[in-house]
């Protein structure tokens, strides 16, 4: 009975387990190819049924598969051992180091044959340097060069003729190595304010606008103290000013007009500033220096300007002694051997009696001495005070810029003198008045090459109520013409022409001269110009005189203008020199006698 019970239970469990082999919903399980690389892969199959079909393997292509081989076959899939390789290149022995003197760019194998240059010899290779090393082959940046320096000395009230009367060993020493003139010209006002300003700015008073000893209207903004120009180009320069006249120095060196143009500014008495400058030269770096000494002017005002006045001569002696102390200090500078010093001596005016201030030679003609000039000797034609600044700038290696509008020119650069006389050329130097810039009426310009004893000057064309370029005159009159000037009388100037260069031709006795000039005046005024020529023998005897003019208002039909006039004559066979003179005769007011293109030509008769 118990065994039947076990059998019944077993049958019941078997029936339950058999029902688990089929899904409850009666669906069948999918079968197929489950291998993803097969051609008939069935992604829905759960059970692989062994039906997978595979692609045929690709056909193998035998060949050389090594790219470096000479027979490389890029289509080969199986290397068949057939690769052939290039023969190794033939070695070329030699020096393969590029720095060697025998470097062989074709060598492939260094054979140890390289030869190397010797070690470089370092030093200064510039032959113009102070420490040039002729054995050096490599420059090491050590070159040292002569450094330019300038000292400008203004001796107020200095007459040229006092040098001979005074004891001036320093100036005498300096003259041996100087370019110089004892006929340099200063401003027509011959007053310290305008003279100092022209000396230190390089322009005439119509530009710097100082016409006396008042500086209220000074135009130092546009035409500054020359240190300003120097530092514009060479800001590393060290400048120092030593002044005994505060009104001028304070205005010109004021920060608002000069900025940082001066590094050291010392004021005081002549003795104080001269002594201080000598002391500072011993221990200060100085490239450009100015000093103003008043002793000659003070003595002239107190005792008289003349070489026969003991006090005036003593003031010159003392000035030379101060200058000697300063020069000794320059010579004693530690690096003096490496310094190129130029010392410029001049003044603002001369004087006569107890004063100055007139437009006369005794007040206007002054010394100009340039110690250390490139070409020592006389300066011709006579220089002007406004030449000092361009000369100093040139020495300092600074080229004058056109926009600075300076009036002067650098002098002392080459030997100068009157041109030699020749036949067939104009013997009148500066006969067109173009070598000095012209002025407007009211200002008297110097006229280079002419001895000007009065107010004769050069005026510019096209000033209203004066000579115009549209008035009768030369086709190309340039910028300037000669005018009688702003004085209250007649004026004159002349030049002397040495005939030594054509002495043989003159001795033939068959030379003629042709004197021509455009001369005239203003409207109905009888101010009139005359041009004279005079021939002298070697003893100074007058042999012949001739001339053209004067031309009066009626001769020019009472119109403003200048007309060509001329005269021809025989040249005396004993002629040694000629004087050509312009005389301007005044009727009233300004002297409106005009001239231009003055010419004197000597030629053989035909």
Sequence-ordered SSE layout with sheet pairings:
Blueprint (H helix, E strand, L loop, with lengths): L1 H17 L12 E2 L14 E2 L13 E2 L14 E2 L13 E2 L14 E2 L11 E2 L14 E2 L7 E9 L6 H4 L3 H7 L2 E8 L6 H10 L3 H4 L17 H8 L5 E5 L2 H7 L2 H4 L5 E4 L2 H14 L4 E6 L1 H9 L6 H22 L7 E8 L14 H4 E7 L5 E2 L9 H8 L55 E2 L4 E4 L19 E6 L5 E8 L4 H5 L3 E11 L6 E9 L5 E7 L12 E10 L6 E9 L5 E14 L2
Parallel strand pairs: 1-2, 3-4, 5-6, 7-8, 9-13, 9-14, 10-16, 11-12, 11-13
Antiparallel strand pairs: 10-15, 14-15, 17-20, 18-19, 19-26, 20-25, 21-24, 21-26, 22-23, 22-25
- The unreliable regions are 1-24
Quickly give the structural class.
alpha/beta
Task: Name the shape in a single word.
Answer: elongated
Mean pLDDT: 92
N- to C-terminal distance: 185 Å
Spatial order of strands in the largest sheet: 12-11-13-9-14-15-10-16
Major β-sheet, in short? 8 strands, mixed
Q: DSSP helix count?
A: 14
Percentage of helical residues? 10-25%
Describe the structure.
Helices cover 20% and strands 24% of the residues. The chain contains 14 helices and 26 strands. It has helices at residues 2-18, 162-165, 169-175, 192-201, 205-208, 226-233, 246-252, 255-258, 270-283, 295-303, 310-331, 361-364, 388-395, 503-507, and strands at residues 31-32, 47-48, 62-63, 78-79, 93-94, 109-110, 122-123, 138-139, 147-155, 178-185, 239-243, 264-267, 288-293, 339-346, 365-371, 377-378, 451-452, 457-460, 480-485, 491-498, 511-521, 528-536, 542-548, 561-570, 577-585, 591-604. The chain has an eight-stranded mixed β-sheet, with helices on both faces. Helix 9 runs parallel beside helix 11 (310-331) and helix 10 packs antiparallel against helix 11 (310-331). The longest helix has 22 residues, at 310-331. The termini are far apart. Residues 1-24 have low confidence and may be disordered.
């Amino acid at each position: 009975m118990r065994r039947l019970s076990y059998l019944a239970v077993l049958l019941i469990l078997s029936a339950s387990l058999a029902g688990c082999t089929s899904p409850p919903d009666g669906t069948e399980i999918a079968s197929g190819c489950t291998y993803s690389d097969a051609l008939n892969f069935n992604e829905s199959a759960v059970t692989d049924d062994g039906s997978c079909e595979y692609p045929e393997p690709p056909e193998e292509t035998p060949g050389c598969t090594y790219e470096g081989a000479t027979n490389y076959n890029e289509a080969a899939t199986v290397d068949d051992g057939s690769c052939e390789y290039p023969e190794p290149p033939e070695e070329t022995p030699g020096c393969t180091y590029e720095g060697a003197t025998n470097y062989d760019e074709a060598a492939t194998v260094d054979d140890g044959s390289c030869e190397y240059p010797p070690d470089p010899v370092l030093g200064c290779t510039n032959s113009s340097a102070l420490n040039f090393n002729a054995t050096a082959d490599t420059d090491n940046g050590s070159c040292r060069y002569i450094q330019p320096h300038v000292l400008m000395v203004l001796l107020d009230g200095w007459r040229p003729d006092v040098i001979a009367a005074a004891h001036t060993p320093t100036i005498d020493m300096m003259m041996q190595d100087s370019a110089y003139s004892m006929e340099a010209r200063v401003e027509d006002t011959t007053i310290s304010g305008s003279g100092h300003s022209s000396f230190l700015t390089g322009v005439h008073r119509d530009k710097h606008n100082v016409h006396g000893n008042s500086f209220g209207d000074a135009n130092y903004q546009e035409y500054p103290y020359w240190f300003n120009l120097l530092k514009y180009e060479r800001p590393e320069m060290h400048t120092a000013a030593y002044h005994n006249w505060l009104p001028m120095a304070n205005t010109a060196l004021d920060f608002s007009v000069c900025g940082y143009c001066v590094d050291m500014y010392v004021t005081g008495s002549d003795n104080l500033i001269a002594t201080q400058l000598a002391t500072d030269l011993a221990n200060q770096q100085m490239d450009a220096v100015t000093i103003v000494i008043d002793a000659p002017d003070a003595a002239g005002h107190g005792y008289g300007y003349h070489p026969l006045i003991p006090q005036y001569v003593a003031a010159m002696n003392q000035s030379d002694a101060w200058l000697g102390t300063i020069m000794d200090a320059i010579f004693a500078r530690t690096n003096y051997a490496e310094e190129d010093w130029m010392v410029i001596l001049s003044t603002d005016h001369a004087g006569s009696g107890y004063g100055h201030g007139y437009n006369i030679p005794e007040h206007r003609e002054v010394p100009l001495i340039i110690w250390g000039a490139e070409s020592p000797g006389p300066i011709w034609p006579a220089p002007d005070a406004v030449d000092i600044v361009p000369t100093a700038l040139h020495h300092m290696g600074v080229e004058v810029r056109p926009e600075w509008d300076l009036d002067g020119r650098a002098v002392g650069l080459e030997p100068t003198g009157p041109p030699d006389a020749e036949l067939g050329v104009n013997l009148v130097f500066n006969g067109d008045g173009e070598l000095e810039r012209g002025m407007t009426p009211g200002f008297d310009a110097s006229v280079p090459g002419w001895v000007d004893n009065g107010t004769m000057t050069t005026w510019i064309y096209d000033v209203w109520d004066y000579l115009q370029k549209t008035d009768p005159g030369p086709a190309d009159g340039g910028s300037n013409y000669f005018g009688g000037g702003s004085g209250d009388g007649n004026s004159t100037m002349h030049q002397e022409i040495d005939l030594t260069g054509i002495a043989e031709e003159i001795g033939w006795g068959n030379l003629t001269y042709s004197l021509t000039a455009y001369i005239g005046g203003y409207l109905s005024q009888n101010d009139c110009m005359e041009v004279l020529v005079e021939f002298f023998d070697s003893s100074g005897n007058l042999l012949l005189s001739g001339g053209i003019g004067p031309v009066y208002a009626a001769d020019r039909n009472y119109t403003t203008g200048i007309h060509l006039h001329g005269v021809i004559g025989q040249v005396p066979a004993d002629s040694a020199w000629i004087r050509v003179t312009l005389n301007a005769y005044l009727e009233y007011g300004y002297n409106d006698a005009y001239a231009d293109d003055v010419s004197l030509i000597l030629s053989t008769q035909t």
